[in-house]
Amino acid sequence: MHKCSSNAVKTELVEMTEKEDPVKLHKDGNTLYELGKYAEAKENFLRAFELYQKVNNFFDAAYSLFKAGECAFMLKDYEKAAEYFQKSADLSFSKGFERFGVSALEYARDCYKVLAQKEKAEELDRKIKEVKTRLEQAF
Q1: Which residues make Cβ contacts (< 8 Å) with residue 34, sequence separation at least 6?
Q2: Cα–Cα distances in Å, from 119 out to 115, 123, 125, 127?
Q3: CA dist., res. 139 & res. 74, Å (int)
Q4: Does domain 2-138 fall into CATH 3.30.420.10?
Q5: Domain ranges within the chain, ordered by starting residue
Q6: Whole-model pTM?
Q7: pLDDT per residue over 5-56, tens digit each?
Q8: Cα dihedral sign for 17, 64, 55, 53?
Q9: 98-114 helix and 78-94 helix, angle to the nearest 10 degrees
Q10: What does the DSSP 8-state code read for residue 95?
Q11: Which of these ranges, 89-93, 107-111, 135-139, has the smallest mean pLDDT?
Q12: How far is CA 40 from CA 57, 62, 109, in A?
């Protein structure tokens, strides 16, 4: 009986560790996404985002938010998708990941277009053009 409970504790520790491993969560999120399990994938990406952010891995945090946005988009939850893409863009711009931030803004803009929120879409269009112009001038 002692051995059985010891195995149960080990299994629980492995499961807890896997739930706290952002790389595993991210990989599992990609697999779930490919299988069309968007809600589950989104949860993995959001948890990975939190964990990456805790360890100051801001690029992977921004990318995880972006992936959560893609999942929400596939679930036709365009408001949440726009929110995740916008947060990904904000984090990207704050850390100097300008090109990635532009991509996230483009997806957020597309969400606003689907939602028929013309003003928000146009506002993001302007911001995208500003950033692209700034990037072109830098090179």
Answers
A1: none
A2: 11, 6, 10, 12
A3: 35
A4: no
A5: 2-138
A6: 0.84
A7: 555 544 543 444 556 899 999 999 999 999 999 999 999 999 999 999 999 9
A8: negative
A9: 160
A10: T
A11: 135-139
A12: 23, 19, 24
